[in-house]
Amino acid sequence: MDVKPDVNGVVNDENRNHQPATIAGPTNPMVTPLLTDLYQFTMAYAYWKAGKNNERAVFDLYFRKNPFGGEYTVFAGLEECIRFIANFKFLKEEITFLRETLPPTCEDGFFDYLQGIDCSDVEVYAIPEGSVVFPKVPLMRVEGPVAVVQLLETPFVNLINYASLVTTNAARHRFVAGKSKLLLEFGLRRAQGPDGGISASRYCYMGGFDATSNCAAGKIFGIPIRGTHSHAFVSSFMGPDEIIEKSLISHDGSQTCEDFTSVVQTWLSKLKRLGILKGIFGETNQSELAAFISYALAFPDNFLALVDTYDVMRSGIPNFCAVALALNDLGYKARGIRLDSGDLAYLSCETRKFFQTIENEFGVPGFGKTGITASNDLNEETLDALNKQGHEVDAFGIGTYLVTCYAQAALGCVFKLVEINNQPRIKLSEDVVKVSIPCKKRSFRLYGKEGYPLLDIMSGEDEPPPKAGERILCRHPFQESKRAFVVPQRVEELMKCYWTGNPDKERAELPTLKENRERCAQHLDQMRPDHMRKLNPTPYKVSVTAKLYDFIHFLWLNEAPVGELQ
Amino acid sequence: MDVKPDVNGVVNDENRNHQPATIAGPTNPMVTPLLTDLYQFTMAYAYWKAGKNNERAVFDLYFRKNPFGGEYTVFAGLEECIRFIANFKFLKEEITFLRETLPPTCEDGFFDYLQGIDCSDVEVYAIPEGSVVFPKVPLMRVEGPVAVVQLLETPFVNLINYASLVTTNAARHRFVAGKSKLLLEFGLRRAQGPDGGISASRYCYMGGFDATSNCAAGKIFGIPIRGTHSHAFVSSFMGPDEIIEKSLISHDGSQTCEDFTSVVQTWLSKLKRLGILKGIFGETNQSELAAFISYALAFPDNFLALVDTYDVMRSGIPNFCAVALALNDLGYKARGIRLDSGDLAYLSCETRKFFQTIENEFGVPGFGKTGITASNDLNEETLDALNKQGHEVDAFGIGTYLVTCYAQAALGCVFKLVEINNQPRIKLSEDVVKVSIPCKKRSFRLYGKEGYPLLDIMSGEDEPPPKAGERILCRHPFQESKRAFVVPQRVEELMKCYWTGNPDKERAELPTLKENRERCAQHLDQMRPDHMRKLNPTPYKVSVTAKLYDFIHFLWLNEAPVGELQ
């Protein structure tokens, strides 16, 4: 089991790396065994004091409801969990801190015990990262000494919740935007803190985005990075007079234009005189013109201009076109423009017409297809609205709503005890959706004739797995009347072993980010379309075997207190 | 200028600490000069290529709208910004990465330039952290070489946005809960990533919370930590038979109870036989009873039990009371219970009655006042609803909605160029709210007779500051008709210098987290109540001087392109 070289994470503190594992530490060095709730330590002490700390427990990590009003979720964050447990070890100063934090009555032996623990006796089974997943089905099953596994609850849930939420959000944005559009994640500045930003870049890429603006994330995860300039760059110039170095060598190196500024000015005059554009613009903004010329001189091969600092159609577009045409004279092809305000549907269509007019009037092949990028508070709804109105945008830069998951800022993954000492356990609740599904379980995805997944089914660990071609009764875990016989065409077991200290057991390799991204795209593609649609999607069915159903309800009755009516 | 010892942040990579500054690096070591948008580097290159990189620029950092439908915001995140620039220096490998990332046409000289830059020539003026602040008024003014200051945009905005948002959210929760309640931040598991959790703990404390469940945050920032046990702890026990070590020494050490379990069982029988409780409960859950006994044996001085694993009134409360009464026999006082589901208003009132019945029936003084903590998806609205219904909760544990700022997951701080080379600059927009206020500015808070702040006013840097007792015209920056004469009783300049490389200038000290927390509480207290109320709060006025007003509108006309109608 190896971390692939393209996931070039920060390697953790050497003092923690005592284990033979070759897995790098968590990407964020702040992810330490102390990054957990205090009650995990008070419980650990109570388990230790009761002599229960080494009892073998099984916990399921799962969520109860798909986010964003949808009927699917993408699972992410597994690699960070494995990195965390592969390097799980308390530093001396952390033990000292805990000793000062817990009540003084806590016995010394407990702190010696804590100092000694690691995750060599823990096993983690999980669905591969990037998979499409559904409520109630365990994303991870974590087995090990109860006190140790309990300490993992908070960091695991923290590492999975946001990762899965933002990957799902990215996948939903990709779904609405369509496959042909370039999607750029621009969220760092609005993200919830520094690694909110870094994680967002990573997981948006996994969920189907093409690139990020975030350099740190680009470096750490090997994600393509994009960016050009801001409004401040435009307004930092006063006018073309301040451009001193005006020469530009042609793309093929065969000639030098000594005064690029003049060539641009000439093109601007030509555009102004063009009858077909009459009335669209008069004097363009001179700061903006100077900024565009300077940017083109710096990046003649990558000229992409932000055109809305003063006025898109009256200034930004004509200024851009003059510079692009001057570049074209020297064999360079301008990349395009970015719109960051206003009516993006209308402005993109007007801009496209302007570009096509230039292609036709001046005979510049391909100019009509010059790229149009749009940004400015985009989300699923605005993308959908743009599609309905009709637009000419080729690339979308999406920030705030994507990375903060503004439409629903949290996913509710939980971590529930399902077995201890081989005894199945259940957590009851007034609210049926909060009742946990007991037992150490396996889960399977059953596929139908058309290749679509039909449903997921959970069984007790010792039950024979469902087989392709064999009829199986699939029951809703809590609603007696909901059940169906299914004859699957194909059966896929969902969880693999990703972590074990047992050298005889095989550990699944952690895939690269690119592999997870591909799995995500492939899983999304193979879903039946009615589960995926934005409006009233069909819920995907999650079921249990008849045997597990009976056992759940036996245990439920057994644990629920009986009232005494007078 | 020193970072106080209680802000015990991770000290950054030694290679960065080349500067004489004694300020520790960012709390999260992932905050590096690469944690910025790529366009900051492409702009830096274009500035450098145009010979503009050292032009002196002034940027304002501000937001446009208060979050959560309110009329105030609390400013936070400044200390992290100062830590960041105090240690701002590129590592060789970062330069190598940038060289590979930018187009190959970029000249070598630029990378030598980048390798050499630091923030010794940058100045940062800011409002003190923990202050109540308002839209459009600069939270920070950052001056320095345009290419360097531009690189700071993304990390500064990232570090301020979430910090201010979550501090404001915490302050709003405190406002609704009232001063007498204990507020506990329980959000780590649902936060947006690891430092979403760590930052949330820090800034919720600043905003008025009393403690966190997050051990890492407790260690780094010296915040009180709280926690007891979860549902899993309860369901990990099968029944009292499995408790082997049953002895407990009395609180004063004078006697040892050899079989604490029996004493608890006896109390449970007494409770069951008590006429006044008849019909409330019958057989309680034995797993739960065993878990409570074990927890009490481990923490006899800190017994707080989660009572809703099976059934609050039929099992959790009677089991808790039996254990609490047994502890009471030995001189220990139980801390209380936690409710994590169901109707918190109703259950807390029923629980209080139960406690009071015990106080009266068994003559246990103070038992009626045993603490009741509530958790379970609490937010401003549910706290408000609980207040209206009436409840008996003493402490609230708040997670998801607090730390992810679910009601509004992002604050929109921006960083706008307002002056370069002593030339004021403006950013126009179709949307007036997006037009920037040009010029290097000062800002002041004017206080009225009753001690409340009346309004904030911005002026050009060279204007004479407003004086107490002198009449001043305060104008809305964009709406001509909105203006008022004000005679302030007191005038407070809002920004101080927190960072300068100039040894002759005085730098304000960075306060401790506790000091910022106190400032926050004090600022919130002194606001006029109608600005603070939840429903339809009165907007606080933000204004400019008459001279600045005139200049804004002169510049606006000057920069806006004029159309040519045919």
UniProtKB/TrEMBL annotation, chains A, B:
Q: Biological process GO annotation list?
A: NAD+ biosynthetic process via the salvage pathway
Q: In which pathway does it act?
A: Cofactor biosynthesis; NAD(+) biosynthesis; nicotinate D-ribonucleotide from nicotinate: step 1/1
Please list the coiled coil stretches: none
- A cellular-component GO term for this protein: cytosol
GO function term, MF aspect, one: metal ion binding
The record ties this protein, via SUPFAM superfamilies, to: Nicotinate/Quinolinate PRTase C-terminal domain-like, Nicotinate/Quinolinate PRTase N-terminal domain-like
First-tier enzyme category under EC: ligase
Cytoplasm is among the record's keywords: no
Nicotinate/nicotinamide phosphoribosyltransferase domain location is 335-434
Q: Name one Pfam family in it.
A: NAPRTase_N
Cofactor(s) recorded for this entry are:
Mg(2+); Mn(2+)
Name the segments for region: Disordered. 1-20
What role does this protein play? Catalyzes the first step in the biosynthesis of NAD from nicotinic acid, the ATP-dependent synthesis of beta-nicotinate D-ribonucleotide from nicotinate and 5-phospho-D-ribose 1-phosphate. Helps prevent cellular oxidative stress via its role in NAD biosynthesis.
Per its UniProt record, what NCBIfam families does this chain match?
A: NAPRTase_put
Q: What is this protein called?
A: Nicotinate phosphoribosyltransferase
